Amino acid sequence: MAKQFDCQFIPAEKLAGYASFLDDCSKQVIDNLLWSSNGYFPTVKFSMAYTDHGILLKYFVKEKYVMARHTQVNDLVYKDSCVEFFLSFDNGSNYYNLEFNCIGTPYGAYGSVKPYRAELPANVVKQIKIDTQVINADDEGFTEWEITLGIPFSVFIYDDIDSLKGTECKANFYKCGDETPEPHYLSWNNILSDEPNFHVPEFFGMVKFV
Predict the structure, then answer these.
(1) How high is the pLDDT of residue 139?
(2) Which residue did the predictor score with more confidence, 196 or 1?
(3) Considering its fold, how many domains does the chain have in total?
(4) How far apart are the C-alpha atoms of 83 and 101, rounded to whole Å?
(5) 80: CATH
(6) Residue-level pLDDT at 77
(7) 203: which of 3, 28, 30, 165 lies 20 to 30 Å off by Cα?
(8) Secondary structure E strands in the chain
């Protein structure tokens, strides 16, 4: 059974402190470890809300190997310590994938499954407000980092979105690090696939904007 959760609305008067609001929101766990032979299992959670103008999303990550080599918009950030958000407004036929490494370098694309996808223009991806925080490693060598994202509706250029209230969208949330010392793939909603592939909208869960 696919996962689902209710995404809460934040009124304008509370937007000034939305990062702390997301700290206090109920968190979803990205807890499906996929295609793993080493058992390495970072701890990843996220919280999400929405406003009159966009989506707010915050990831909370604890992992052993924090790596960021890609610094330009639409670089291949999935090779670094990376979190991802895939969202469809048409029941999975087409979807946006937004990806961010631990220093906040963004990547965005849209379309149906590979290879029928197109990168979002850099000037569109740059509209996403990104704030990152890396916390020092603990005694066991694990580092915590957080990334807060403000994604305006204008990023969804292939859809005419002026409000999400009362809608349901298909989505999935991921953590990966293809070229880190211990490559890993985690998903919020489970994926049944023999090979590493996040581009499987049939395995998206559901987000209800209440």
Answers:
(1) 74
(2) 196
(3) 1
(4) 6
(5) 2.60.40.1190
(6) 98
(7) 165
(8) 4-9, 28-29, 32-34, 43-50, 54-63, 82-88, 95-101, 106-111, 117-119, 129-135, 143-152, 168-176, 185-187, 205-209
Domain interval for residue 65: 4-197+202-209
Query: What integer is the mean pLDDT of 16-38?
Result: 89
- Contact criterion met (CB below 8 Å) for 147 and 131: yes
Chain mean pLDDT for the chain? 94
Q: Say if residue 205's pLDDT is above 80.
A: yes
d(CA 95, CA 203): 13
Closest C-alpha to 67, from 196, 176, 150: 176
Picking from 99, 96, 118, 42, the residue whose alpha carbon sits closest to that of residue 207 is 96
Question: From CA 86, how far away is CA 91, in angstroms rounded?
Answer: 12
CB 129 within 8 A of CB 147: no
* pTM more than 0.90: yes
| 47 touches 22 (CB < 8 A) | yes
Q: Is 153 in contact with 54 (CB distance < 8 Å)?
A: yes
Mean pLDDT across 145-154: 96
Work out whether strand 43-50 and strand 168-176 pair parallel, antiparallel, or are unpaired: unpaired
d(CA 190, CA 122): 30
